[in-house]
Amino acid sequence: MRKIIACAALAGAILVSACNTVEGVGRDVSSAGSTVANAADESK
């Protein structure tokens, strides 16, 4: 559970710092989704 929270916090920080354009937001959201999915797969 801590990994998921840490990954979500990291993804949130990346989203806030790197979304200067709409394209950037799309990439950031995709990256965050991949991070959460990987963390979920690891915790199975």
Automatic annotation (TrEMBL):
Any one GO cellular component localisation term in the record: membrane
Keyword Transmembrane helix tagged: no
Database matches in InterPro entries: Entericidin (IPR012556)
Keywords associated with the record: Cell membrane, Lipoprotein, Membrane, Palmitate, Signal
Pfam families referenced in this protein's UniProt entry, alphabetically: Entericidin (PF08085)
Gene Ontology terms: biological process: response to toxic substance
Signal peptide, first to last residue: 1-18
Family to which the UniProt record says this protein belongs: Belongs to the EcnA/EcnB lipoprotein family.
Protein name: Entericidin EcnAB
